[in-house]
Specification:
The structure is a single chain. This protein is mostly helical. It has one domain. The chain contains five helices and no strands. It has helices spanning 2-38, 44-67, 76-104, 110-136, 156-159. Helix 3 (76-104) packs antiparallel against helix 4 (110-136). The longest helix is centred in the N-terminal third of the chain and has 37 residues, at 2-38.
Length: 177
């Protein structure tokens, strides 16, 4: 049982961030896929562009103030700029998936368009999670390999931190992990 606790302790931060990221990303995926499908008549690339821009705003807020709230950014303007640039790369992933399915393979039905969006969402999600952790919201000090917390706790009481030890949210308000 202690081996499981140790393993969980090593991957705790990754598990929690990954879960929150998937929830925020799920909302973003619904906005992107639903929006692109609803706007499909204006053109497949323009539709996904508009939907992705709206989803980017939604996911920025969710990731900044919930998923990665405990991580230090390097300044609001810098973080925001890099976030939007990385989402531009995510949009290129959508374009590539749509191009392969619709333009290269010639599968032009609405169902195939949705398939391309879903594949683009999966590939883009993997890229975004990795890149946000690497370039936008980096791990704070005291964390081991890949930003994973090395702290293992045996009880909930040990997990509680004093306000001086707690990570802070942007703007300085203390929060418990």
């Amino acid at each position: 049982m202690s081996a499981i606790r140790e393993l969980y302790g090593q991957f705790r931060q990754l598990i929690h961030e990954g879960g929150k990221f998937l929830l925020v990303g799920g909302v973003g995926a619904i906005v992107t896929i639903g929006g692109a499908d609803a706007l499909h008549d204006i053109g497949k690339y323009l539709a996904v562009t508009i939907a992705t821009i709206v989803a980017t705003v939604v996911t920025y807020l969710g990731n900044r103030y919930w998923t990665f709230a405990h991580r230090q950014g390097q300044g609001h303007a810098r973080d925001t700029t890099i976030f939007f640039i990385l989402n531009g790369v995510g949009l290129l992933i959508y374009y590539a998936c749509i191009w392969v399915v619709a333009d290269l393979a010639g599968l032009t039905s609405r169902l195939w368009y949705l398939f391309a969006l879903i594949v683009g969402t999966v590939l883009g999600t993997i890229f975004r999670f990795w890149s946000y952790r690497k370039w936008v919201w980096k791990a704070t000090g005291g964390q081991g390999v890949a930003g994973l917390s090395a702290k293992v706790v045996d009880s909930p009481e040990q997990e509680r931190l004093t306000p001086a030890e707690s990570p802070t949210r942007p703007g300085g308000a203390h929060r418990r992990p």
